[in-house]
From TrEMBL:
Lineage summary: Bacteria, Bacillati, Bacillota, Bacilli, Bacillales
InterPro entries: CDP-diaglyc--ser_O-PTrfase (IPR004533), CDP-OH_P_trans (IPR000462), CDP-OH_PTrfase_TM_dom (IPR043130), CDP_ALCOHOL_P_TRANSF_CS (IPR048254)
Keyword Membrane in record: yes
Protein name (database record): CDP-diacylglycerol--serine O-phosphatidyltransferase
Record field: catalytic activity: a CDP-1,2-diacyl-sn-glycerol + L-serine = a 1,2-diacyl-sn-glycero-3-phospho-L-serine + CMP + H(+)
Subcellular location: Endomembrane system; Membrane
Family to which the UniProt record says this protein belongs: Belongs to the CDP-alcohol phosphatidyltransferase class-I family.
Keywords (A to Z) from UniProt: Lipid biosynthesis, Lipid metabolism, Membrane, Phospholipid biosynthesis, Phospholipid metabolism, Transferase, Transmembrane, Transmembrane helix
This protein's encoding gene: pssA
Parts of the chain that traverse the membrane: 83-100, 112-131, 137-155, 167-186, 192-210
Domain of life (superkingdom): Bacteria
EC number: 2.7.8.8
Length: 222
């Protein structure tokens, strides 16, 4: 259910972007990011993990963190370059799909403390954050970051996975997002965001707190 929720957030994000509601679209990608960071661990906690769930997770990721961010970047900036901008925006999900496929076939991925290349979830989340605060960030920075993320996803650079930290994967990025969200709400623009954020954010904060307390208790037992 969490994985399918992630996929549905990606679908809704594309729809919001096409309708010109770019901040809604960005927020939905970040909600999908929350769900993605929770589904795997919850499945293991409930002993419900399966090969089907792992494959479904990859399919959801390519939509929510590959296709949706590329549409978002196209509609907010690359549209100025007509068909060229559309073609360039389409490169992001291609690189992301290759990165996911390479990760899925790696035999020793569970024993590593690092990722090979930037995970597509992190890359998509970064693009969503850039769009969310696009009015304060020069377009050239978005272009450079977009291009860099495409190549970093398929690179052989080792990215720490932070598995020993008692937070979900990408918890740091999402925590930064929560801080940004509080700032946006403080600025009085909260009415523009989908109501789902008011459900997802408290649930995710509770989940982070649970993981942190559980991690602390494990360390005390050791």
């Amino acid at each position: 259910m969490f994985t399918l929720g992630n996929l549905y957030c990606g679908f809704l994000s594309i729809g919001f972007a096409a309708d010109g509601q770019y901040k809604n679209a960005a927020i939905l990608i970040l909600i999908g990011m929350m769900l993605d960071s929770m589904d795997g661990r919850l499945a293991r906690m409930l002993k419900a993990d399966s090969s089907l769930g792992k494959e479904l997770d990859s399919l959801a990721d390519i939509v929510t963190f590959g296709v949706a961010p590329s549409f978002l970047v196209y509609y907010t900036y690359f549209y100025q370059f007509d068909i060229l901008g559309f073609a360039v925006a389409g490169l992001f999900p291609l690189f992301g799909a290759y990165r996911l496929a390479r990760f899925n076939i790696s035999t020793d991925k569970t024993s590593l403390n690092y990722f090979i290349g930037v995970p597509i979830t992190a890359a998509g989340g970064i693009l969503a954050l850039l769009t969310l605060f696009g009015d304060r960030i020069p377009n050239i920075i978005t272009t450079v970051v977009f291009t860099a993320l495409c190549f970093l996803m398929v690179s052989r650079i080792r990215i720490p996975s932070f598995k020993e930290i008692p937070l979900p994967k990408y918890g740091t990025i999402v925590t930064i997002f929560l801080g940004c969200l509080l700032y946006v709400i403080y600025r009085g623009t909260y009415g523009q965001f989908p109501y789902l954020i008011y459900i997802a954010t408290p649930l995710y904060i509770a989940y982070l707190a649970y993981r942190f307390v559980k991690g602390k208790s494990k360390k005390n037992e050791e």
